[in-house]
């Protein structure tokens, strides 16, 4: 976490669904607020603003730079700090990392409202950063996978002694699915493949009329959760879902980027 400012050059920003856990959401609140807001808030000896932050493709790691409040225009540091951040993030996560935000603007395109992805300082000061991240589909409080954070807290005692706490709610496998997507005249039906890890998973489906493949992610807490999806034809949508324990089926609803309704039902696994 470099306390220097460099010119943010053109780097590939993240694209597609990304659901962040509590730790990373707290880091983002710290980053956007210049260290003044959230659980990691602390008194700052020197004022600074958000510079740039990169995040691993699975949301497991991050790295960022700060921009000092006062910069001498005659002595601007032009080192490739974003490239250094990407290298650091990739080394620690073992995953590809991408530019998530530059300054107050979230560059990661998950299909959400582009204008809304530019955070306002008054909302940050009001403590609304995490709520905005949740609104945009980047953050789900139910997603509690451990990750790096600013406090180096101990993880060895975090494992639950209750077997039910660690039970995976949403079983991996292939399911039949029916989707009502406003704008499509016919019901979209077919099979969908799910992969699950600690109640957070990914899924893939094919749209009719050769409209392409859609990739999505979801996160569950007990019986409720959130989902987001992005398709090859640049269509995307997000919303909430409900897991039904009686038959292991799932229902969901939400909106796409054109504010059109999306509803689906996934059958249970026998």
Report on this model:
With 270 residues, the protein is α+β, with helices and mostly antiparallel strands. It has two domains: 114 residues, no CATH class; 99 residues, Lipocalin. It contains four helices and twelve strands; from the N terminus they run αββαββααββββββββ. The strands form two sheets. Strands 5-6-7-8-9-10-11-12 form an eight-stranded antiparallel β-barrel. Strand 10 and strand 11 form a beta hairpin.
Keywords summarizing the entry:
2 domains, 4 helices, alpha+beta, 13% helix, eight-stranded antiparallel β-barrel, 12 strands, 270 residues
Let me know the largest β-sheet. Answer: 8 strands, antiparallel, barrel
Note the gap between the termini: 48 Å
Number of helices: 4
Query: Assembly state here?
Result: single chain
Shape: elongated
**Biggest sheet: strands side by side, in what order?**
5-6-7-8-9-10-11-12
Proportion of strand residues: 25-35%
Total number of distinct structural domains: 2
Helicity, as a percent range = 10-25%
What are the secondary-structure elements, in order, as H or E?
HEEHEEHHEEEEEEEE
- Indicate the radius of gyration in whole angstroms: 20 Å
- Strand tally: 12
Please identify the structural class as seen in this structure. alpha+beta
Mean pLDDT: 76
User: Any low-confidence stretches, pLDDT <50, length ≥5?
Assistant: 1-9, 145-170
